[in-house]
């Protein structure tokens, strides 16, 4: 007997069925037996059953739980964080939220990568310390000794911030001092490199507008007459002038910072705040001037 | 009577909700194959009927008590409960004669519409197999009934027997070989005689 025959014979055994009468009779008995138990529950539609089978409620709830909890926790943390930072804005040393203010300042500082922006932040934080000094001085609830201690600490922090700003300004000054002449040289050599015998026209470079008013702007000395070609143009260095202005503004900002320090020592805190405001303006102006200078230099090299 | 997978899922869902009509529908769908399974295991029609009826009632109570939390298919549950009842039955009737396959009465085929030829063919097949099936190991006999008579899939058999699919495949292969060997031995004896 081969496999097929065997399987066919086995399949024939499928025709064995229970007695029809027994089957019918027992069906009724079974129905009455199960009816004696629990009452019928409300019937659902097939669509609902299919939906619940695909996405059973337990799975949905289990999935939703951690997601909801995580999102709720993050929203709470965010709300508390933002609220804390806003509430701590006017806090002074000794307040419970003062630490939040310091942390937010440090976080802000850590998130800033540009040296100029860091210098600006330093000025802002120094201003904050100065404002806190005023708040401490106005606070009459504390004893004089406590206030003096706080003022001492704030003064130290103020000086620390100022010295950091000074360092940053010095770094900016050095980097720009090193970078600008190189750029200018590259421009001069780039313009003439192997092209002295070629006919070329050089556009008159735009005069950069500098806040100090000392920026002269580059000028082409050789005037090009109509029909003639400029072969050896001498270009003055507008970028270098720009760098000079930055250096000057940096040194003037440094001087102002020193003045602010002195004013704090003399307890003229409002005066110190004004000076810091001016320093901020100088940094802003030098930044704007540099951006302008860079764009003009770029256009002249085109 | 065949049932689609989706229909079976719906039926299982309804039964989980203690739907009596759904359970009766399941009875209509599965009574034939479950009766057959029990019948080939116990070898007696009346005992098979008793065990079959007991199995359906027990399944209903099981559903009411356990809410079918871990059960994936209804068919597997019916077969599992059947197997347990058969084991209990073996324990009770230990020492008594078993696997008679209704020798004295002959196998009663209830389909009255089938023609005489079919009847003769079936009886001939059964006569051959009825003597050989009980000689097989219980495990082999069970898997042959499930796979080749009741036509369960490998997956379903694996669920019923609590074995991996690979194990079931091996078991089917071995049981089929064992049955073929038994039948070939029988043929040899007949030829020699």
UniProtKB/TrEMBL annotation, chain B:
Residues 129-179 form the RNA polymerase sigma factor 70 region 4 type domain. The keyword Transcription regulation applies. One of its GO terms (biological process) is DNA-templated transcription initiation. Residues 27-94 form the RNA polymerase sigma-70 region domain. It comes from the Bacteria. SUPFAM superfamilies: Sigma2 domain of RNA polymerase sigma factors, Sigma3 and sigma4 domains of RNA polymerase sigma factors. Keywords: Sigma factor, Transcription, Transcription regulation. GO terms for molecular function: DNA binding; sigma factor activity. Pfam families: Sigma70_r2, Sigma70_r4_2. Signal peptide: none annotated. PANTHER family: RNA POLYMERASE ECF-TYPE SIGMA FACTO, RNA POLYMERASE SIGMA-70 FACTOR. Belongs to the sigma-70 factor family. ECF subfamily. This is RNA polymerase sigma factor 70 region 4 type 2 domain-containing protein.
């Amino acid at each position: 007997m081969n496999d097929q025959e065997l399987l066919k014979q086995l399949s024939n055994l499928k025709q064995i069925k229970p007695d029809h009468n027994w089957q019918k009779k027992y069906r009724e008995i079974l129905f009455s037996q199960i009816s004696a138990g629990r009452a019928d529950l409300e019937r659902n539609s097939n669509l609902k059953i299919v939906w619940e089978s695909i996405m059973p409620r337990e799975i949905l709830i289990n999935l939703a739980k951690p997601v909801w909890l995580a999102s709720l926790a993050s929203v709470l943390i965010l709300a508390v964080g933002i609220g804390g930072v806003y509430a701590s804005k006017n806090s002074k040393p000794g307040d419970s939220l003062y630490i939040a203010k310091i942390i937010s300042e440090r976080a802000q500082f850590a998130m800033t990568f540009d040296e100029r922006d860091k210098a600006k932040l330093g000025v802002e934080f120094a201003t904050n310390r100065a404002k806190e000094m005023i708040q401490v001085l106005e606070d009459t609830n504390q004893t004089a000794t406590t206030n003096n201690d706080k003022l001492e600490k704030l003064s130290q922090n103020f000086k620390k911030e100022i010295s950091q700003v000074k360092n940053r300004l010095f770094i900016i000054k050095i980097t720009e001092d090193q970078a600008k002449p190189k750029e200018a040289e590259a421009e001069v050599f780039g313009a003439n490199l192997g092209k002295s015998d070629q006919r070329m026209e050089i556009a008159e470079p735009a005069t950069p507008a500098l806040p100090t008013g000392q920026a002269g702007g580059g000028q082409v000395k050789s005037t090009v007459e109509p029909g003639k070609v400029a072969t050896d143009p001498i270009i003055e260095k507008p970028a270098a002038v720009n760098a000079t202005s930055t250096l000057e503004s940096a040194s003037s900002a440094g001087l102002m910072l020193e003045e602010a320090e002195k004013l704090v020592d003399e307890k003229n805190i409002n005066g110190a705040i004004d000076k810091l405001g001016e320093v901020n303006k100088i940094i802003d102006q030098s930044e704007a001037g540099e951006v302008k200078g860079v764009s003009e230099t770029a256009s002249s090299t085109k | 009577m065949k049932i689609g997978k989706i229909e079976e899922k719906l039926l299982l869902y309804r039964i989980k909700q203690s739907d009596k009509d759904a359970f009766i529908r399941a009875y209509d769908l599965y009574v034939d194959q479950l009766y057959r399974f029990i019948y080939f295991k116990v070898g007696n029609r009346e005992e098979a009927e008793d065990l079959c009826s007991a199995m359906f009632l027990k399944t209903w109570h099981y559903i009411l008590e356990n809410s079918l939390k871990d059960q994936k298919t209804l068919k597997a549950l019916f077969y599992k409960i059947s197997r347990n009842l058969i084991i209990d039955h073996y324990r009770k009737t230990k020492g008594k004669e078993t696997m008679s396959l209704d020798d004295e009465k002959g196998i009663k085929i209830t389909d009255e519409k089938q023609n005489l030829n079919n009847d003769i063919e079936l009886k001939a097949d059964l006569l051959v197999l009825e003597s050989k099936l009980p000689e097989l190991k219980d495990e082999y006999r069970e898997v042959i009934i499930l796979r080749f008579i009741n036509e369960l899939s490998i997956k379903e058999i694996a669920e019923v027997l609590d074995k991996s699919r690979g194990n079931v495949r091996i078991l089917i292969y071995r049981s089929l070989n064992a049955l073929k060997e038994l039948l070939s031995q029988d043929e040899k004896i007949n030829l020699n005689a």
